[in-house]
Amino acid sequence: xxxxxxxxxxxxxxxxKVPIFFSKNEIRKYIYxxxxxxxxxxxTIIYYSKKINKKTNKGIFKGRLKKRKKVIIKLKRISYLKKxxxxx
Length: 88
Prior knowledge:
Layout: E1 3-6, E2 12-18, H1 24-35, E3 39-47, E4 51-56, E5 59-64, E6 68-75
Antiparallel strand pairs: 1-2, 2-6, 3-6, 4-5
């Protein structure tokens, strides 16, 4: 999912989710190949799995959510990316 964030300095950032094994260089190459834009900055955030407890009719379900990786990118020039799914 691609989201656009605009801060007070009129800078545009894009955020999306990628597979956990993607490195920053792979993300940079993928974005350039897909959208033909050069990136100024890449920040990655790894969300670790979280415990969940759910009460159902059959009893209590205990489990964990998967690890996720979120990427925040800033482009060199002001340009806009098409809103479409990058990775699943």
